Hints:
Blueprint: H1 9-23, H2 33-46, H3 49-52, H4 73-83, H5 87-102, H6 109-122, H7 127-138, H8 141-156, H9 160-168, H10 178-190, H11 196-207, H12 221-234, H13 240-253, H14 258-269, H15 286-298, H16 318-325, H17 342-345
Helix pairs in contact: 1-2, 1-4, 1-5, 1-6, 2-15, 5-6, 5-14, 6-7, 7-8, 8-9, 10-11, 11-12, 13-14, 13-15
Amino acid sequence: MALLVFGPPEARRSFVAVMRLVATALGTRPFEGNEAELVSMFAALEGCAGCHGLEESFDFSDLLGDEDPWADSEEAIEMILRGLPNESDRQEAVHAGMLVGLFADEPDPEAATAARWVANRLGVDETHAAGIEQVASEGSASAKADLFRRFLSERIAVDGDVISARMDRHDLASITRPDTIVEYHRLLDEAPEGSLGAVMRDFYQDASFDIPGMPGVPLPVEFLGSHDVHHVLAGYNTSAQGEVYTAVFNAGNASAGIGWLSVVLLQWHQGVKLGVFPEGHSHLDPEIMATAAHRGSQTTTDLYSASWDWMALLNEPFDQVCNSLGIPEGSLVGPGDFWGSPAEDS
């Protein structure tokens, strides 16, 4: 889900329009508050000449005012369709709209319904939007479990039925083969100083996390280990905010990133328990959010892909790994800094 469009002004304008539609619940409420602030921040990034190497910046201020820039939502959809003739771009625009709704401090059923309506009118898959709408509107256990199952299945390329069966037994960690656990722990132990694996050792120590694969860790190494690598490469700590910023980085980097992003925002921002960790509320900075998405969209390797061999990089120099993956500068935490949450640092 590349949240930032590297295309013509019409495509970028369509993205901002979708985000505004969701923020205003299809024009039924004012364009204000946290969601409006996030839309404005993304509009600034999408129009920024310096951010994209453009000769001039784009002005989307007409989409950010107090008054709706179109007569009704159908007129807005017509404009959006003209700017996004490609179906995959329209799907990404819907994902950007979903992000706006999920940025609200509490579940926002009106925004979730708006995102699903936009998906339907743009003719793209609305399955994920429907799941988020159901969680936001009803908080049903089945909808929560389905969102978590689908994202985990996609993330580690394991059949959804297998995920469901292991979830029912509270035994997701057993998906990982014992030899994979042994190999991961060996690579971490033997990683030379200055390597990605050495930074990972610092990460686990600072965060006081058990290393994936140890008894009691509830998720498979294939998922949790790679997620921890994402934290380190993107440079965001293990606070609730750091979890969200890492997920936003992933969403900007990968076409499939919306799955993990929605789970993280619901669980660690809006306080809706979906997975195996305690939920919580957190305040998010819209500028850091937008920058994380921008950095992810500029990263040249899909770090979210189940086929990406992150374990093969653990012995490589950290800076060399970041450069080879095309990860831009902008980390909030780097090698030698503290990786735990601020509360743990006090």
